[in-house]
Amino acid sequence: MFSLALRSVRHHPGRFGATLLSAFLGAVIVMSFDSLYDTAAQAGVDDTSAESLTTAASVVGGYGTLLVFFAIASTLTVNVRQRAAELSLLRSCGATPAQIKRMVVGEAALIGVAASLLAIGPAMLGGRTLVGAFQDTGQVADGVDAVFGPVAAGSGAAVTVLASAGAAFLAVRRATRQQAGVRRPRGRLRTIGGTAALVLGVCSASSTFAFDATDPALMAAPAYGAILISVGLATFAPALLRAVLSVLAWPLAALTGASGYLTVLNLRQRAGELSAVLMPLILFIGVATATISMQAVENDAIASSGLARTVGDKNLATLNLIVVGIIVAFACIMLINSLYAATVHRRREFGGQRLAGATPRQVLTMVGAESAVLVSTGVVAGTVAAVAGLVPFTVVRADGVLPGQGPWIWLATVAVAVAATLGTGLVTTRRVLRAPAVEAVAVAA
User: Fold this and answer.
1) How far apart, in whole angstroms, are the C-alpha atoms of residue 107 and residue 88?
2) Mean pLDDT to the nearest integer, 136-144
């Protein structure tokens, strides 16, 4: 099956483009930050510089590994779902579920290896840029040279390949079980994992009240709480989407007519599939809003105290900005990849609607309404996660409830989410609608 996987990747390169992009960018991020370990381990590096480099590599490396897995899993899940007919045909030809799993996992492993090799050059430049940024803020001595060594290359390749293979195994395992008609308690593991993340997130955010206002580790507890709550809510994305849809169903139908009616039907039937889009939305809004707002509160508190910012304060601010940047990049990649792949796959659906009498304008309105419902769901869940982490931190650090900059930060975050969701959905749909309806139905069939 490995040879079949090799031929599949070679003859269908476009199919794996989104996965390769996610794996490539993930490898660049992981390798860039892991190169800080190599830099800190070289001879002649002082203790302060080594500590700053190691802390950044440890914190961001952990986030990066998790986000790499989520990004690859998101694109691979969409990819495997769209290959249902191909996998069913292989089953009909005599392939066993184990052979299909080996084929899909082999494809993902090949993509991971290719992404790791392509990422080496950009990761070297990224490592040098990071070291230069730390030197500009005084956290690393000017004489320290950036090094790209075995830790960066080995760990980056291992994380990328293992994340690709693991995500592919989970995706194809679910698909083969569904094709075989195996019925399992729906979402049991997801429910347990989501509930555990919510409970741990609430406990982490609540533990903020046990810290002093000047404690260096004060921001850690609410930040991790917001992240865990975001992950927990993201696991319940289908249920959240149905709940929001029950509220917006009548306004959509009243405002957009037939397009709104189609929107409600599509979202109810595809709630599970669209969870791949909601997950990055919730993570992006929740984590970005909470982290940036907490850093704004911290900066105001330091400024009002009249004290100069220490190396630790600068290091924490730099890490927060880097973490948010990584989350923004990966959330946008996951969102755009998932929406693009899902929309292109609906070519036959759009063609059938047009043959039944729908105009291109009505189809575009339907996709825009779907995107609006998705954004609304992501904003509600992400805001809940952000507030859950932000309020305890603000109460302890600034004797307030919400920071003054909070609404503006939230609005900017939501604006980016809206632009990414609506822009990707509408632009891709407009491109799909360029083909004649009869041709779209014939090609998709």
Assistant:
1) 17
2) 81
Q: Tell me the pTM.
A: 0.74
- Taking CA atoms, 40 is separated from 53, 65, 146, 148, 286, in Å, by 6, 20, 9, 11, 33
| 145 DSSP assignment | P
| Helices 188-206, 360-398: inter-axial angle, 10-degree rounding | 40
Burial class (CB in 10 A: 0-12, 13-18, 19+), 281: buried
Q: Which residues touch 11 (CB under 8 Å, ≥6 apart)? A: none
**Residues 285-318 pLDDT 10s:** 888 888 888 888 888 887 787 766 666 666 666 6
Helices of type H across 83-183? 84-92, 97-136, 150-179
- Containing 60, the helix (H) or strand (E) segment is helix 47-82
- Cα–Cα distance between 149 and 390 in angstroms, integer? 38
Residue 431, token pair as written in the block: 């491109």
DSSP 15: G
Q: In this structure, what DSSP letter does residue 400 have?
A: S
Ramachandran bin of 363, using left for φ above 0, alpha for ψ from -120 to 50, beta for the remaining angles: alpha
Q: Which two tokens stand for residue 128?
A: 């040098």
The percent helix, strand, coil of the chain (3-state, each to 5) is 85, 0, 15
pLDDT confidence of residue 444: 46
- Token readout for 226 is 């917001």
Q: How far apart are alpha carbons 342 and 276 in whole angstroms? A: 10
pLDDT, position 388? 92
Please check whether residue 285 is in contact with residue 382, taking contact to mean a CB–CB distance below 8 angstroms: yes
Place of tokens 């779907």: 370
Cβ contacts of 391-396, under 8 Å, gap ≥ 24? 392/205, 392/206, 392/208, 392/209, 392/221, 392/222, 392/225, 393/208, 393/218, 393/219, 393/222, 393/223, 393/294, 393/297, 394/294, 394/297, 395/208, 395/209, 396/208, 396/209, 396/211, 396/212, 396/213, 396/218
147-186 in b/e form (b: 16+ CB < 10 A) is: bbeebbbebbbebbbebbbbbbbbbbbebbeeeeeeeeee
Could you write out the three-class secondary structure of 11-41?
HCCHHHHHHHHHHHHHHHHHHHHHHHHHHHH
Closest by CA to 339, choosing from 293, 270, 292, is 270
Q: What is the pLDDT of residues 351-404, one digit of tens each?
A: 888 888 888 888 888 888 888 888 889 999 999 999 998 999 999 888 777 777
Determine the distance from the C-alpha atom of residue 152 to the mean position of all C-alpha atoms in its chain, rounded to a whole number.
22
Q: Comparing C-alpha atoms, which of 427, 80, 428 is closest to residue 273?
A: 80
Q: CB–CB of 149/36 below 8 Å?
A: no
